[in-house]
Amino acid sequence: MAGSGEEAATAAVVQNKKVVLRRHVTGFPTEDDMEITVGTTEQRVPAGLTAVLIKNLYLSCDPWMRGRMSKHDDGANPVSASDFVIGEAMVNYGVGKVIDSTHPEFIAGDLVWGMSGWEEYTLVTQPESLHKINHADLPLSYYTGILGMPGLTAYAGFTQVARPNKGDFVFVSAASGAVGQVVGQLAKIAGCYVVGSAGSDEKVSLLKTKFGYDDAFNYKSEIDLSAALKRCLPDGIDIYFDNVGGTTLDAALLHMRHGGRVAVCGMISQYNLEERDGLRNLFCIIPKSIRVEGFNVSRFFHLYARFEEEMAGYIKDRKVAVVEDVVEGIESAPAALIGLFSGKNVGKQLVAIARA
Amino acid sequence: MAGSGEEAATAAVVQNKKVVLRRHVTGFPTEDDMEITVGTTEQRVPAGLTAVLIKNLYLSCDPWMRGRMSKHDDGANPVSASDFVIGEAMVNYGVGKVIDSTHPEFIAGDLVWGMSGWEEYTLVTQPESLHKINHADLPLSYYTGILGMPGLTAYAGFTQVARPNKGDFVFVSAASGAVGQVVGQLAKIAGCYVVGSAGSDEKVSLLKTKFGYDDAFNYKSEIDLSAALKRCLPDGIDIYFDNVGGTTLDAALLHMRHGGRVAVCGMISQYNLEERDGLRNLFCIIPKSIRVEGFNVSRFFHLYARFEEEMAGYIKDRKVAVVEDVVEGIESAPAALIGLFSGKNVGKQLVAIARA
Known about the structure:
Two copies of one chain form a homodimer.
Chain A: E1 13-21, E2 34-42, E3 52-60, H1 65-68, E4 91-101, E5 111-117, E6 121-124, E7 131-132, H2 149-162, E8 169-172, H3 180-189, E9 193-198, H4 201-209, E10 215-218, H5 225-232, E11 237-242, H6 246-254, E12 256-264, E13 291-294, H7 304-316, E14 324-328, H8 333-340, E15 348-352
Parallel strand pairs in A: 8-9, 8-11, 9-10, 11-12, 12-13, 14-15
Antiparallel strand pairs in A: 1-2, 3-4, 3-6, 3-15, 4-5, 5-7
């Protein structure tokens, strides 16, 4: 069995910087809600514990983290995960390298992705949640995005929830983001007509030139979102892949075609509001027999192996492009996370904290 | 072939009272928006026409008629049907007797239900939409309700859209209405725990004593709909069969269980509002993987024959009860229709205009 946990010899102790939550958040989070603390970590799994010690290489910044930054006294955390604990390292998906392991499926040197801490070293006590990286010839950072949770979210949401047909008219919001960029490209592979919305002209350009969207618009410069949809999708929408909720969802509902599907993946426009926007157009789903289905990637991890092979193939065959927004150093993580909520990131936002 | 349309002999001409729309409606409709006019009808199908002349026996009052009472210049009628024409008889489902027919499938004396006019006699020029009544031993008025469009709506919406499992916690709004009373009883037959909401203590009593609901509440006397749902369904809701939309739908979304289904059949609370209520709780569908699906009975008419036999069997075996609110005479039709929107009706609202 791998691992040195049962040995009495001392292991090196190294510095471990962490991003910890200073206070639970109401409304828009700020960098000041987090701080960097410095602790130490012994470079092995403590005796008697079945666990994996990971050196974190890439941290993923994902919108769903916002839900865990608030306090939910009733246990009703909107993302079905526990609230972050004040003073402890925040938690999210990441890519790392195994330093030590007492779990039979992992050995030192393994490259993995999965739930880890926002810190330099994490002791993972539930290693079942880690995935070994099968395509280390691709950039490892891809396992925070197109080959990790956001990629699987896009794949499962599009193929299993939205269920595309060739020729469908597809609309994707936050279309250049970690999930959106994958959905749009999968939709093109499936033979759909795809329109995306994003929050800057730079991103709109990226949608058309890099990701193959048939058309795109900058929602921040449109006076009337419904008119923008009518212009880009005059025959209506068969699939709306919703990453933003709010006024974009409300406008899209007006343009859904008979039998249309709204795959509701996220509502980033709403996460920081104390009172959410009211949706007024849901009535449209009755005469047009529209299905609006929320989903959470957690129920689709059984598809991961199939997805990883398929997506790695697309990347290697240059059938899909990847755009990442990489910041360097764990000190940059709070600002990178906050930037998501104003759309500062261009593509998948991640933090590189070590290269090997 | 039946029918006297090709004969030259004259047929009797009789008086034909109609309910016509006086003006297109904005906001709440009133009786004054309709009027009774008196015309005449020749008692046979005109020469050269393939049609069926019906003597109307029962007119059905249904909430969806509201959508056709407004003017939609853009053709975007929310009920996917044409706007009613000012000065012409209004149109809806009804039960009638064939007086004359030039269509091969119908002969004088046939009892039918289907789309007809709000008038004493209607020339049906698309007889394919009529259904022959196979259980004339049951009250014919049932074919405006439990054995007609509302019954099929309940059956298809519950079995095909909501897809119940034994033991599911089911919530039904407008639970004593034409659709709701059938959904609740089908849910009991399917082995579910069923809670209904209605707008009077009388109706709440009916739900528990007549229709077998496990629990019920009067939404008009609850200060907090969410608290009422928590009280009646402390473990949450697997299926919400929505007939009302608005604040009831918004409250129900908060209580949906993981994998829950909201079958959206109608939104009667919203039909007369110039600005619809904003829904703020749709975000719940993401972490809980909830499906919200609108449907229209029109796509389920292929199930009608199976449904009619099954439901007639339940009625004859006294497994389901029927409560109708019957007013007499075509002059009573406008008030009966208007009453739907304030919940004046107790059970299925219909108008008896002739007995044979």
